[in-house]
């Protein structure tokens, strides 16, 4: 992963291997998303690049989508506490204040993560960039009782938002 902002021209000049090496981590531990999105190059603008990644997720087989969802870490979960999050996940969760919680707040998140995962079979996924801890908790409350189908659709939309935010951080407009 490169933290340097790239120009769209540089992205379009990359060979396929360099592209996947640069963007394979955009979707949590799922480089296949970048492999599929790469085939839509050259991108006329950054929005087209974002759309190619979103389309790769949307067009994937249900098993691949489910695997992608299951790769996401729990919000304020064990990986966060142990310092094992990918750098972008760590920064996103820290931006929402999820790295500065009391023991009681961590316990609440742990209970919610467990209940959500048990009900839906996937981790709770929310694009937390720009959100507060309270907004994350409100989203948990609003979504916990949804059907599995609604939550899988919602989670995929949230993954696409996360991908957009990450691409916007890496590629100049």
UniProtKB/TrEMBL annotation:
Pathway(s): Purine metabolism; urate degradation; (S)-allantoin from urate: step 3/3
Oxo-4-hydroxy-4-carboxy-5-ureidoimidazoline decarboxylase domain location: 12-168
Catalytic activity, reaction form: 5-hydroxy-2-oxo-4-ureido-2,5-dihydro-1H-imidazole-5-carboxylate + H(+) = (S)-allantoin + CO2
Pfam families assigned to the protein according to its UniProt record, in alphabetical order: OHCU_decarbox
Domain of life the protein comes from: Bacteria
EC class of the enzyme, as a word: lyase
GO molecular function terms attached to this record: 2-oxo-4-hydroxy-4-carboxy-5-ureidoimidazoline decarboxylase activity
Protein name (database record): 2-oxo-4-hydroxy-4-carboxy-5-ureidoimidazoline decarboxylase
Organism: Kaistia defluvii
Lineage: Bacteria, Pseudomonadati, Pseudomonadota, Alphaproteobacteria, Hyphomicrobiales
